[in-house]
Every structure is written in C-alpha cells, then in structure tokens.
Design a protein that fits this description.
Helix 1 runs parallel beside helix 4. Helices cover 30% and strands 26% of the residues. The chain has a single domain, classed as 3-Layer(aba) Sandwich (Rossmann fold), CATH 3.40.50.1580.
Length: 195
C-alpha cells in the first residue's frame, strides 16, 4: 500500500463528528476503540498498512481541576500512564517501564500533560491526586503515542474538555461529548488543520 499523507484517529465515531463519512482531502480516518491497549493495537495496525506523514488523534477528555473548563480545547504536550494505586503507594511500576510519551507533532491548541488511567476516575480525591501530574484525563492517548513513536511517525492530539473528573463525570460527559466533538472538529477546520 502507498503511504498516506496523514491519519486522523478517534476512539469511536461520534468523536470524529462526521469526518468518518466525509474525510478531509489527503487524510485517512479511523477509530481505535476505547482504552489504551485497544488504541495501541489499532494504531499499530493502521501504521503498518501505510506509513502516514503524521497522526492526529481527536477526542474528549475530563478536567482534573479548575485549570481547564468544560468546552476548552487543548493539545497534549505528553501522554502519561497514571495509576491511583501507584500514586498512593499501593503498587509500583518497574524502573524499565515507559510511562511517558511526548507529542512529536504540533497541535493547534494550548498544550498540556494528559493523564491516561486504566479506567475513568470517579472520586474527587483521585482527581486531586492525578492533578499533580496532568490537567486532564483520557483513556487512549498513551496507546496512540506509544504506537506512533515505535513506528517513527509524528503524533499529536487535540481534545475537547467534556466534563470534570469526579462522581458526575460520566453523566456530564454523556451530556456534552457529541456537541463538543462537533465544536472541536469545526475549530480544527477553522485553523487550517485539514488543509
């Protein structure tokens, strides 16, 4: 297969806001599935099918604290594998384990560290602990960035803040994710990302 100019990814179709049905010229569009492991496997497969010039992941995230507001758009400066058990000292990571992957391509929004947890954080206490390391929570980004860096493909992420992390996060995300995904894609089009 010939190389493709660029690859646009999201976890699932609503976060593509219609770009899966009508891809921008020069872009291949695909979904990775939910969770870092599924995202890593799908991204590695897509990269092997045709090495793109770069990868852009789009999606939604949750804000750990007041540094971000629902409706903000951010880029990811890096994706961090985070665990409340590790942070609380109930578990540890081997020294050889890679837990941090920097973005290697620019995103058009202010860049912040994004924490990737094994599941959605439901407690305010957990959000406060995680906020010491990142401003937002996401479920796929470490898998995307790890696969891209293993393949030598530049990667970036653009995310819309859809909720606050805590007990009401899922209900707030359900109320906001579709609308904010549409707004994120519109903002990316307006700033010329897909030209």
């Amino acid at each position: 297969m010939l190389p493709i100019p660029a690859l646009l990814l999201a976890a699932f179709p609503p976060e593509l806001a219609g770009l899966d049905a009508d891809p921008p010229p020069g872009w291949r569009v695909a979904c990775t599935g939910v969770g870092a492991l599924a995202a890593a496997v799908a991204t590695a497969r897509l990269l092997a099918e045709g090495k793109p010039s770069h990868v852009l992941f789009v999606g939604t995230c949750g804000a750990y604290d007041e540094r971000l507001q629902v409706g903000d758009f951010i880029g990811a400066s890096e994706a961090l594998a985070l665990s409340l058990d590790v942070l609380a000292g109930r578990a540890y990571r081997p020294d050889l384990e890679v837990c941090r992957w920097p973005a290697t391509a620019p995103a058009p929004f202010p860049a912040h560290a994004v924490g990737v947890t094994p599941g959605v954080t439901r407690s305010l206490e957990g959000a406060r602990m995680l906020a010491q390391h990142a401003v937002a929570e996401h479920l796929e980004l470490t898998g995307i960035f790890a696969a891209c860096q293993a393949a030598g493909v530049p990667c970036a992420a653009a995310l819309a803040v859809a909720n606050r992390v805590g007990p009401e996060a899922h209900a707030e995300w359900r109320a906001n994710h579709a609308r904010l995904s549409l707004a994120l894609v519109a903002a990316l089009k307006d700033c010329g990302t897909f030209r």
